[in-house]
Amino acid sequence: MVHIAIVGAGVAGLAAAQVLKRRGVACTVYEKSRGVGGRAATRTVAGVTFDHGAQYVKAPTADLERLFLETHAIDIERPVWVFNAAGTIREGDPNQNADPKWAWEAGITALSKAMAQGLDIRFEVQIDHLELLSGQGGYRLLDAAGNNMGHADAVLLTPPGPQTAAIVAASTLLERFQVPLLTELQKVTYRRILAVSLLYAQRPTLPWYALVNIDRRHPISWVACEHDKPGHVPPTMRC
Ligand SMILES: Cc1cc2nc3c(=O)[nH]c(=O)nc-3n(C[C@H](O)[C@H](O)[C@H](O)COP(=O)(O)OP(=O)(O)OC[C@H]3O[C@@H](n4cnc5c(N)ncnc54)[C@H](O)[C@@H]3O)c2cc1C
Questions:
Q1: Which of 68, 71, 77, 86 has its CA 20 to 30 A from that of 114?
Q2: Of residues 104, 76, 108, 103, the one with CA closest to residue 11
Q3: Is the beta carbon of 14 within 6 A of some atom in ligand 1?
């Protein structure tokens, strides 16, 4: 039986693992942190739940919408407005705002936790590199100390591009796969983002749930109000 290793228990790794499981393919997910979700992350501070990575998700397919409804997702009803480099704020795109913006009372990690159900996930395992096994075939997965963390016929890497590139670069793979893979991965660039959570005693009086910088020339790209997600803020702080 084919066995697949998936590195990363963010939404990409979890979705792939669920699809493979549904098709009867055995897989093991390796995750370096203690929980699932990756950049779709939630933190609770002073009784307030902050989604400090992904804020909400859209459901472009019926399958996704079904998953969101089964996991008791809620629509953030207030709209997203826009602002420019000068700080001028105006109403956002009515078509985009007409689509539901799905969030979860317990935070966006509720989605990843639901997607993780029934999967074989090894937490606190950071895969550093892979070793192609010439005799038996497949790959060995190793940590930075060279410890053998597992074996699989195929490996799916889902960390962000630069981290995936580092794993591929440190691995022993067939040159005809490794070189083009690295060439593509090295084209992927990321901008560093700081997520700042501010605690207000009450919801500020604002007509929008969030603001997005549309010309990408303002140092702030996004501002959002967690008060608008049911369950994120205690009732005493709601209005
Ligand atoms: C601030 C911010 C706001 C965003 N807002 C939105 C939004 O509103 N709506 C939206 O749809 N998207 C949003 N996004 C994008 C969205 O969060 C990501 O596209 C999505 O979460 C990426 O999922 P992923 O599984 O591809 O990667 P990740 O979430 O990065 O998952 C990769 C996983 O791999 C693990 N990992 C990494 N290296 C290793 C290793 N060597 N060994 C083992 N495990 C490893 C990581 O710990 C992580 O859990 C936002 C992102 C950010 C940062």
A1: 77
A2: 108
A3: no
